[in-house]
Design a protein that fits this description.
With 130 residues, this protein is of the alpha+beta class. It contains 3 helices and 9 strands. The chain has a single domain, classed as Lipocalin (Beta Barrel), CATH 2.40.128. 22% of the residues lie in helices and 50% in strands.
């Protein structure tokens, strides 16, 4: 009986520990990101600040994303990070899931952020941390 009790205590302790990877991804996302390019869609569109004349910035906090275009706030939406099955890759990925349930696969490499819209014929957006 003591062995079962010890096993239960150890098991519940292991499962109640927080995942440091989630907090690391979240802290790496937090900040101001400047748009460098977008590509995708059924027409294979390629956009950059030079081709559109737009400046786009996203500010990511611990729980919300603000999107600015040419200095004007366009949107603010809450999000969380969760593992979900991607509809484009049919595999598990950590994703930014907005409160409207729109999902982005994200990749951070150094000061670069890639947001991949998790939908068919959608866009990939690239940013650099300010």
């Amino acid at each position: 009986m003591k062995k079962i009790l010890v096993a239960l205590i150890i098991g519940s302790t292991l499962f109640s520990c927080s995942n440091d990877d989630d907090s690391q991804h979240n802290s790496a996302l937090i900040g101001t990101w400047v748009w460098t390019s977008s590509s995708g869609g059924i027409a294979g569109i390629e956009e950059t600040p030079q081709s559109t004349g737009d400046t786009r910035i996203i500010e990511i906090s611990a729980n919300s994303i603000k999107r600015y275009r040419n200095g004007t706030l366009e949107s603010q939406i809450n999000y969380l990070i969760n593992t979900s099955i991607s509809i484009i890759y049919n595999d598990l990925y950590e994703m930014i899931i907005q409160e409207n349930e729109f999902k982005f696969i994200f990749e951070i490499t150094g000061s670069n952020l890639v947001l991949i819209e998790d939908c068919i014929d959608c866009f990939t957006h690239e940013y650099v941390k300010q």
